[in-house]
Amino acid sequence: MRGPPGEPEDYARWRAEVLGPWEAATGLRTRSARTPSGIELREAYTAGDAGNPGMPGEYPFTRGIYPNMYRGRRWTIRMFSGYGTPEQTNRRLRYLVSHGETGLSLAFDMPTLYGYDPDNELAAGVVGVDGVSVSTLRDMEVIFRGIDISGISTSMTINAPAQVLLAMYAALADERGVPRSSLSGTTQTDMLKEFIAQKEFVYPPEVHMRLVRDMMVFCTREMPRWNWISVSGYHIREAGATALQEAAFTLADGFHYVEMGIEAGLSVDDFAPRISFFFDSGINLFEEIAKFRAARRVWATAMRERYGARDERSLRLRFHAQTSGYTLTWQQPMVNVVRTALEALAAVLGGTQSLHTNAYDEAYAVPTSAAAKLALRTQQVIMEETGIGDVADPLGGSYYVEWLTDRMEEGIYRYLDEIEGIGGVMEGIRKGYFQREIARSAYERELRLKRGEDVVVGVNKYREEGAAIRFLRVDSDRVREAQIRRLNEVRGGRDRARVERALSDYRAALERDRNVMPYLIEAVKAGATLQEIMDVGRELYGGWREPEILGIL
Amino acid sequence: MSLIDGIVRGDPASISRAITILESDPGGEAAGEIINSLRTSRGSAFVIGITGPPGVGKSTLIGRLCDELTSRGRTVSILAVDASSPFSGGAFLGNRIRMEEQLHRRGVFMRSMASRGSAGGLGESVWGAVRVLSAARSDYVVVETVGAGQSDVDVIGIADYVLVVVAPGFGDLVQALKAGMLEIADAFLVNKSDLPGADDLGRYLEEISGGRPVIMASAVDGRGIGELADALEAARGNAGTMRGERAAVAVRIALESLLRDEVKGLMEGTRARRMVADVAAGRISPHEAAERMLGARARENLGGAAERGRRAARRTHRPWHRPARP
Amino acid sequence: MAGGGSRRSSAYYRRIFGSRPPRVLLAKPGLDGHDRAIYVLAQALRDAGMEVIYAGLFTPPEEIVEIAVAEDVDVIGLSLLNGQHMTGFPKVVRILREMGRDDIAVVGGGTIPPQDRRALEDMGITGNFGPGTPIDDIVDHIWKRAAEARRRKLPAT
Hints:
The structure holds three protein chains of three kinds. By secondary structure, chain A is of the alpha/beta class. Chain A has helices spanning 9-26, 69-72, 86-98, 110-113, 137-143, 162-176, 191-198, 205-222, 234-238, 243-263, 268-271, 285-305, 312-315, 335-349, 369-385, 399-421, 425-431, 433-451, 476-493, 496-511, 517-526, 530-541, and strands spanning 33-34, 40-41, 76-77, 103-107, 153-157, 185-187, 226-227, 229-232, 275-281, 318-323, 354-356.
């Protein structure tokens, strides 16, 4: 139950009797303050501000999705990794597992993210640079060599070609005799946020939505432990959105996927439990915490009231968080360790289920092992030494946090109404609504930095001349050569006729609106490459150019 | 290769350079030379003015239209007009149309123009660009504006054929279009005609159009594009009469621009300062002041005053040497 | 507003630019969807009185130059945050050179390490600003390069 809007009596009394006289006596005027999302803050909050937020593990889950939170289940330390060749990535994964990581997370390089093979001209200079290069099932086999995929969960940060990578993972499981139904993990798959923020799209929006739908249906039936989507706010936030916009746009996307599932003929409780989320964790501690709590409340409420979900698992907003990359500076990079620690704290106090902490050198490259390890230790200190995990939602009942949660909730609903008013998420994307909101917020932030209203230590205040730190340089050309060699081996060793048949069957499935997943699994088993598969869609549907964003700013 | 040779050969760099010269110093020597040299070149582009409220789908329409016309063997160029910021003088240019990737593939020349706060200046720039593009053998020049300002009406008036684009759900049609646009339209196009309300909109336009074509279209699906291209090809065949009207509009705009310069010149002198002081002190009315100033001016050469005004507005470039930094 | 605003009103720049403000083309010549910097810079340049054109995502170098020439820009601003700058940026410069358009200035930005910065500058690509650079620094630099470019373009023909 929310607290009241406006100022409660006890605040008014305090302001008249205590704050006012204090300011008069000391001459210390209270400077105004607001959260980065623009919410005006009072000097202090009172009992009259906090409503009744309920209990952890109970609808609407403001205070956490499980009753005992981290006492019952610790959050997963899931460090985003992957670079270079599949061999290098395999080594890094095994290194992290041996040092305590409990879930695997794969980053892919640009060509893979956009569905191009390493020998494509567009891939020059970026093979293996921001993530691992994958174009055939053979690459996946190498990545997971010596890793038991039935015993660990794997998260794949992949979107436009998510259906192909999922097909590869399923094919790998088939090869190893691991039942698909036991596979645990996530594919990010959230194409709406690609159009809104990350811009890793290949086809027009409707085409991608159809592919997402096919993944949703396939997983619901055959891979019930697989989170086929991670509805993401991280990228929306990193592109410049405020925390409030991040929460609102992400939830709008989530609801769109729910509607898609219902339209596909699935019962909401069959697929909704597997919808997971991925949020940013920023540096304004309390706004982030309030954001997580408000998001849980809005999700649960809408799922029950609007979409008729009955299963509690459909109402629980599960999320992975990543500390904000945008807040990292290359100036005085060790200070990033502090930032990351505070952002991780916000995520834990906000009740995250899984967490990635950035390495201090991650501002401009894939991190070094040492820096990645320190980021890992950051989580372990929070988990083992601070005692925060001993009590569920320790900030529950805080006057400020409850008040701010209520304000965030209101703001989210305002945006959801606005989005509905313009015709929904897809219309918003086509009209450039989200993109424009984000560009505007990004610029407003830049202006605040310029004016000194926002401070970044070491950047616009407390500056120092410093030595540039050494950072990991991936020899992309060497990776490219190695990958092309393997690619040619695969091409040389496969049954050409089988590949062609598989690709033409896949094409027919696309045209006749059949679920593409079985055809993709066959195609990757036959040795079809990622680009060969993605090109089928390119031929049929073409690409997509963004609507104009700038003109109406 | 001289600039003129380049233009006639369709070299984009030459075309672009010439347009720049004509828009940055329309009264200058270089501009005069270009206009003079192009006088004898054959080729006369048919100018299509496309206007309408933002969001109706003009850019998709233009992209599809370019496709259609080029597949019929025509060359097309585009002039995209955007408003400059009244605060900073800066502008975002032409991004909406550039989003159509067909342009690059079809060899369509596109140039963006900002209003730069001067309706006359913009009209002149468009006129100059059309001259250049005509000499470069462009069959069509599409001039696209948002249709929100008076300068847009002036610019569009230069066109041989004005197409007003609307779509269902865009509020009150009459309000959305600047006064004058409805009058000068040669045809209307209802885009997104698959949406509810399209038929009603089409019927309304037929009522007020007085016989002018109303095309129902859905640019994103390619519907109605062929019909539009047919109408344009037909109109292009009859271009002679329209040219005269277009020239009259252009001359009017140029006159207004020259007179504006003259006013600027008048306001800069000592006489102006005295007159203004008199008005401020309540000794004479503003109208009286203006009449006196004009009366004095009438004794002098009108062209000379305009030239002074123009020179006041223009800074001539001196050969480069490092001046002291301000 | 400091920086761009006062710059625009200075007689020095008025003399160079006359009635035609600096014109800048922003582009991303590579497989990179990070466009936050582009949108922030575009707005800052517009507010500083410049005309801004954005070529859009994933634009091939040939097309970037084509737009730059047709629009007669003073500066091309290239941004890549995917490590592909040593492939994409030089290609743009190469094509400009082949077309004899050295008058157009090229400014770079993105995740560019110091050693690459030097190599790019040797090619005539200046700036090469990283994330966290104060926006005024970038705007001022572009003003400067635009002024140089404009002087190179005049006198005409």
